[in-house]
Amino acid sequence: MQRMTGIRNLIWILMMVASGCDRGVPTLSDEQWLSIQQDLQHERTELGMQRDLLEADRRRWNERQRNDPIVAATIHAAALLICCTLPLLMIALLIWPRSPEPSSESVCELLVDDLVTHADRANESVKRIGQSTIPRQPKSKKP
Questions:
Q1: Helix, strand or coil, per DSSP, at residue 45
Q2: Which pLDDT tens digit goes with each residue over 28-40?
């Protein structure tokens, strides 16, 4: 409401200036002039605050425009670095020396040793079985 009266008073002043002050200008009281001046001062203050808000918003956008490309370039460089090092890591894993697989000679030796051990055990068990199944004949004394 107060803004509307300030705008109305401003329009009235502009109409007076445009029509010329010589033609039947109504006189304003001191209170009216004071009210018009206060309205104008209030509008100037409001415009100043809005201008400050607009300037702060412009600074934020400017800062964002300055920082966003730096962050984007950093992310892009990191992703590129990872993509370039992955093939190198895969090649390194393929080439990396591993523990050697046992040679065929050592495997054959182990199998032969195992067979010999099993054969010896089998022979011992056969000997034991053979000794226990053969009846012993008592030794006769010859006169």
A1: helix
A2: 788 888 888 898 9
